[in-house]
Design brief:
CATH topology of the largest domain: Rossmann fold
Radius of gyration: 24 Å
Order of helices and strands: EHEEEHEHEHHEHEEHEHEHEHEHEHHHH
Helix content: 40-55%
Low-confidence stretches: 363-384
Strand order of the largest sheet: 2-1-5-6-7-8
Number of domains: 2
Number of strands: 14
Structural class: alpha/beta
Largest sheet: 6 strands, parallel
Length: 384
């Protein structure tokens, strides 16, 4: 299958949306599927998102997306995000009368309200409008599906996440004093948080906890400088990637996830795959993953997260690993494929035949009008 992906989030951004789509695409390309990923870094005119300059918003994108669509002739279109590219892709599909699927990766209304004076209710009106004509809205967890259905969303389906159990592995653990310890010199136990350092991640709830040992934050983002200044007793190590990140996960004693706005939280599975138990609030994502796993603790929102984090020190690390192994990226990719909304084969053939005929007619008309043009706009002849 040829699949067009339209997304406002892509490299060099580092977040769950980008990692999820990259892994899904990799799994499906290995099975012979072809992708055309339309993202802001491909020559679009862009502007930085206010208050979050790392995110680029593509402008005036509809025409170019249509050109890509006509050249690639996809069998399915999936719109990943609700940004300017996502809106242009949605508009194109509606004009062309081509079905499409969408995904609800992040709590867009809450994220916007945390940064701009936009009411959460207005945000939900927008995203409900955005996903209204999607044949399938892929949502990370069942509890998130239920929450959106209460807000009058339609065509929602739970689409979970996976974890790279080869990269994130307990064998990477380095104890205090061992060579390669990423937390060398820090008092144990190590309570770790990994992710974007941004206001919507509720990181202050973690750095303010009264915990033994050391609190460590790995990640970059717009709130980093402010938090480093305000919490000098917390160790901010910046962004880590690949094996360095995996070693940090495995070498920590507890992973603390204070976010109330994530729809899943890939970092929860990455920590568990590394053998590190997770302490989290009872928010969407953790409450779908942690209960009954013996791989972490769930604390009611506004409850004592520190007590939950300390309780994780008594959990079995092998159990955490075994639970994470039940989440397969291959299964996630196959579910994505199943939720796409391609045109049925007979209609697909007629759709592209009709579009090719229209395109050929338009090209021939342009050639004709060029030949008829006798204006002075043409390049002058060489006087020699």
């Amino acid at each position: 299958m040829r699949i067009m992906i339209v997304t406002d989030a892509w490299e060099p951004q580092v977040n769950g949306v980008v990692r999820t789509m990259q892994r899904v695409i990799g799994e499906l390309e290995a099975e012979g599927h072809q992708f055309d990923v339309v993202h802001p870094g491909e020559g679009f005119r862009t502007m930085p998102l206010p208050t979050y300059p790392e995110i680029k918003l593509a402008l005036f994108a509809e025409r170019r997306i249509r050109e890509r669509f006509e050249a690639f002739e996809p069998e399915a279109v999936h719109i990943v995000t609700e940004g300017t590219l996502g809106m242009a892709g949605r508009k194109m599909c509606l004009k062309m009368r081509h079905p499409f699927s969408t995904a609800y990766h992040t709590r867009f209304p809450e994220y916007v309200a945390a940064r701009l004076p936009v009411p959460v209710g207005a945000g939900y009106s927008f995203v409900r409008w955005f996903h209204k004509y999607s044949g399938r809205v892929m949502v990370p967890t069942q509890s998130m599906v239920e929450e959106l259905e209460e807000k009058r969303f339609i065509n929602t389906v739970a689409w979970t996440r996976g974890v790279d159990t080869d990269l994130f592995h307990p064998d990477r653990r380095r104890e205090a004093g061992q060579e390669g310890d990423p937390f060398a010199g820090l008092p144990r136990p190590i309570f770790l948080n990994v992710g974007r350092v941004a206001v919507e991640k509720n990181i202050e709830a973690f750095v303010e906890l009264d915990l033994p040992g050391s609190k460590v934050v790995i990640g970059d983002g717009p709130a980093l400088a402010d938090l480093k200044k305000r919490y000098p007793g917390v160790h901010f190590l910046g962004a880590r990637f690949g094996e360095d990140l995996a070693t940090a996960y495995a070498s920590a004693d507890v992973f603390v996830f204070p976010s109330l706005t994530d729809t899943f939280g890939l970092v929860v599975l990455e920590a568990m795959a590394s053998g590190t138990p997770v302490a989290a609030f009872e928010a969407t994502g953790p409450k779908d993953v942690i209960p009954g796993s013996d791989a972490g603790t769930i604390t009611p929102i506004k409850g004592d997260l520190a007590a939950g984090a300390v309780a994780c020190l008594d959990l079995d690390r092998d159990t955490c690993r075994a639970y994470a192994e039940t989440y397969s990226w291959h299964a996630v990719a196959l579910a994505f494929l199943e939720n796409l909304q391609p045109l049925p084969t007979p209609e697909r053939r007629r759709f592209w035949q009709k579009l090719r005929r229209k395109k050929k007619t338009w090209v021939d008309w342009e050639v004709f009008t060029d030949w008829m043009d006798t204006s002075d706009a043409k390049e002058p002849k060489d006087p020699k």
